[in-house]
Design a protein that fits this description.
globular; disordered N terminus; NAD(P)-bd_dom_sf; 379 residues; Rossmann fold; alpha/beta; binds nicotinamide-adenine-dinucleotide; seven-stranded parallel sheet; Lipid_A_modif_metabolic_enz; 13 helices
């Protein structure tokens, strides 16, 4: 199909712009999909624009995604329990006409009812994120990551939601053979409580075909890096870069182990791509989210940082506590959504060093619970 000027005009009426870097035929598909959504999702509700509920929108990824969605013309409602006293991350958005914040627990059905009101699409980011925090708070993890998320999945039904995106993790692959790369059909071997809950939620979602009135998409995210209003320094790229910048005695466990990484801006783009894709490309689909270019060992990350900070001291040790080792195949997201990351690990390191050089993040030691998932402010 060719893209006609009238399609642009009609798409403009729903405040929509298409990414001009995408292949022309795919741009046309996206525009057609926006016209369908305008007719079938917006018109019956009397809405002019889509309103996206971002559950966990005040976190490391969510507070960057929010800006991306607002810039793209979406209305955003953030539901978040502010478990890390991270309310400051939403303050810049509070006076944006298209933004609304609702503090609340995803495990609280009364909160969910209010949060869902008038919503067209949902992105589920919230939960206790990471192996250490779920291990430290197993009860809260069960209440939120298991019971709460499973109930939230149920609560999505009956609302004629346009997209329901569940953000999962490549940690689900656990430990895979040295010479293998995990595509979406690769066997899942979740090693932690955190990943086991994600796998259970994925399985529940994928078994809903024909039973619910929405069509979910699962995104298995690589490990995140990049600047955010809620910086996390408990993730490899951020942790290593800051430690080496401060010339701390960085101890790296199992330097040869592989993981995929992805910048927050790229994750935000992935979510936008799913929100805007035709349903036949994303309905009941699982995607590894990231790009082959950012599959890296911890040694590669250290070497990347060393290129900026050659004198930084680093020590190595084998047999650390975290046995995860997985190289991931990102062919599907490239083929189906034309997604490839714009940012490399090197870009992320340079960006963070720029901020550190300006004296930012000098309060990490005194404000530790904000800067990583170490400690919950859980009611
Ligand atoms: N950061 C990564 O490297 C990474 C990698 C793979 C997948 N993911 C996934 O991406 C998502 C977001 O990760 P993040 O790094 O932004 O984590 P984060 O911990 O920074 O953000 C999570 C947010 O969820 C909120 N939250 C937690 N429990 C809640 C509840 N019961 N009700 C409402 N809000 C609640 C927290 O307050 C926090 O703001 C998670 O689903 C995570 O599993 C992250």
């Amino acid at each position: 199909m060719t893209i006609s000027a009238s399609m642009y005009r009609r798409a403009d009426q729903v405040a929509f712009t298409v990414n001009a870097h995408l292949p022309e035929e795919y741009q046309a598909e996206i525009l057609t999909e926006q016209l369908r959504a305008a007719k079938e999702v917006l018109a019956p509700r009397g809405l002019a624009r889509r309103k996206v509920l971002v559950v966990g929108g005040a976190g490391y990824i969510g507070s960057v995604l929010t800006g991306k969605l607002l810039d793209a013309g979406y209305q955003v409602r953030c539901s978040d329990l502010l478990l890390y006293r991270n309310g400051v991350t939403v303050t810049p958005y509070l006076n944006h006409a298209d933004y609304q914040f609702m503090k609340g627990d995803l495990a609280d059905p009364a909160h969910l009812e209010k949060a869902f009101d008038g919503i067209t699409d949902v992105v589920i980011l919230a939960g206790l994120v990471g192996d250490p925090i779920t291990k430290k708070y197993p009860e809260a993890s069960g209440r939120i990551n298991d019971d709460g998320i499973l109930r939230l999945i149920d609560a999505c039904n009956g609302r004629r939601l346009n997209r329901v995106i569940f953000v999962s993790t490549c940690s689900n692959y656990g430990l895979i053979p040295e010479d293998a790369t995990a595509d979406e059909n690769f066997e899942l071997t979740p090693l932690s409580l955190y990943a086991k809950s994600k796998v259970a939620a994925e399985q529940k979602l994928m078994a809903l075909k024909g039973k619910v009135d929405y069509q979910p998409t699962v995104l298995r995210f690589a490990t995140a890096f990049g600047l955010s209003p809620r910086m996390r320094f408990d993730l490899t790229v951020g942790e290593f870069t800051r430690a080496m910048f401060r010339a701390e005695d960085l101890l790296v466990y199992d330097a040869h182990t592989w993981r995929p990484y992805c910048h927050l801006k790229d994750f935000s783009e992935v979510i936008r791509r799913v929100i805007e894709a035709p349903p036949e490309r994303v309905a009941f689909e699982v995607f590894n989210a990231g790009g082959d270019v950012n599959n890296a060992t911890k040694q590669t990350i250290v070497d990347t940082i060393k290129a900026f900070l050659p004198a930084a001291p680093v020590r190595y040790q084998a047999h650390g506590a975290d046995p995860r080792n997985y190289r991931v195949n990102f062919a599907k997201i490239k083929r189906v959504l034309h997604f490839e990351p714009a940012m490399t690990v090197r870009d992320g390191v340079a960006e963070l060093l720029g901020a550190l050089n300006q004296g930012l993040f000098s309060d990490v030691e005194v404000n530790k619970p904000f800067y990583g998932n170490y400690e919950l402010a859980y009611p």
